[in-house]
Amino acid sequence: MIDIETKIKKAIGNNKLNPEILGERKWYNYFIRSTQLIWARNNHDGYQIEVYTKKYGTHLSTIII
Predict the structure, then answer these.
(1) Which of 6, 7, 11, 53 could cross-link 16 (Cys pair, CB 3.0–4.6 Å)?
(2) Which of 20, 26, 25 is nearest to 46 (CA)?
């Protein structure tokens, strides 16, 4: 079974998931929240993607890209 972080990174690489679309949305069997990171606050430019289960809202993973 493929883990969630690998699945998200592969989807971004294949243009199936665009982290530049900010906010909350459903994605397959998950509920994701995409937030832009700005260097002045986080010392890392990029995006933070939080993954939750669609049904129960349980936090599964946080991925920083």
Answers:
(1) 11
(2) 20
Q: How much is the pLDDT for 2?
A: 66
Lateral strand order in the sheet of 30-37: 23-27, 30-37, 46-53, 59-64
List beta partners, residue 51: 32, 61
Amino acid at 43: N
pTM of the entire predicted model = 0.82
Q: Which long-range contacts (CB under 8 A, 24 or more apart) does 56-62 make?
A: 57/31, 60/4, 60/30, 61/4, 61/5, 61/8
pLDDT in tens, 25-63: 999 889 999 999 887 766 778 899 999 998 888 899 888
H-run or E-run covering 6: helix 4-13
